[in-house]
Amino acid sequence: MSRVTRASARQAAATSTPKVTSPLSSQARRANIKAESTDEKPSKRKTTTKSPTKSSSKRIKTEDDDDALPATPAKRVKKDPSEDDSPAAKPKVSPSGASPNTLQAKKLKAFDQFSAKSPFPDFAHPTAEEAKLAHRILTSLHGARTRPDTVKAPTSRAGCGDSPSVLDALVRTILSQNTSDANSTRAKRSMDAVYGGSDEWAAIAAGGASKLQEAIKCGGLAAVKSKVILGILEQAKARYGAYSLDHMFDKTDEEAMRELIGFQGVGPKTASCVLLFCLRRESFAVDTHVWRITGLLGWRPKTASRDETYAHLDVRIPDEDKYGLHILLVKHGKVCDECKAGGKNLGKCALRKAFRDKAKGVAGASPELPDEDEDENGDVKEETKDKVKEEAKDEDEES
Questions:
Q1: Catalytic site residue from 117, 227, 251, 269
Q2: Residue 65 clears pLDDT 60, i.e. is over it
Q3: What is the CATH number of the domain that holds 376?
Q4: Residue 374 backbone phi and psi in degrees, to 5
Q5: pLDDT at res. 354
Q6: CA-to-CA distance for 256 and 274, rounded, in angstroms?
Q7: 380 pairs with which residues across the strands?
Q8: Sign of CA dihedral 306, 121, 356, 371
Q9: Does the structure show a pLDDT above 90 at 335?
Q10: Where is this region: Disordered (predicted)?
Q11: Residue 269 known to be catalytic
């Protein structure tokens, strides 16, 4: 199936204005408060809103595209003691409070709506030239990133989708959700040690949720991730008669994406990583680093969620730049003092300076690097490269 061209990103999209509710009078508020305190217990659930301008610098990762992975899993009113011991057991209600079928339908509807066009058709950034400029700057700072001829599953780290097995790539990416690279690697190594090696899917399925949860607890959110992994194994076996998803190599990008996000706990970011690294497709995955930096560059609306940012950037960034630019943005987001979480604009980051007009709504309008960062040939000066490379010295290399 041919991919829809980026021209469709220019299509007009209807917008809606949220209704504004008039504030209650002080007397009415007091009456409501009194009624709530006598009729029911106050809810302990904390509602959060996506706000790219107030991200915490203490959090390692926050991925909002994975429907089964909240920052704090909701408490269950009552737990069946046998639930964790059955590999076939599945929660009827997800931690987010909606049924799996409802969440699946919501994800697929959102994907179908924006699979070939941006949710922000009037937002003109990044242009192809802006994407290539950023790619050139990041390459000069961190080195080029090119796709390898063959995909090999790493043994020294969990990775994020880089495995020749689709199922293994998916599980590795799930382990990487909402945690650091070091923690996901510890979880993968622990899981392999407990079950006698990598890809021991039958043993994992037979062992049940309690055993898997204990094996991967060092990676964070083990209770939720163990259920997600077991649910995927159960569905793969039931649908295809084997613990394998390698049939996706024969699927189109859209077909593979739809099937992946159809699994509970798998959102656009996770699915896009599997497409990009395992299936070797041109998909622009948006993790917390990519989302943060593209906001700084003015490549997305300030209020855009990660899922919306993925849908927007995937149609605007040229296919030939998606692999390298994704990896370089992740790398830069980890090591640049100005672009990492909680970083401050010191006016020295070559990437941010190149897009300094973004605050005026014309991101990338000044395509030239500032003079102090260029040599006589127009290339980034060695001292600028060395500064960022020195910061990256002790960092793990991104795949």
A1: 269
A2: no
A3: 1.10.1670.10
A4: -115, 150
A5: 93
A6: 9
A7: 374
A8: positive
A9: yes
A10: 1-101, 361-399
A11: yes
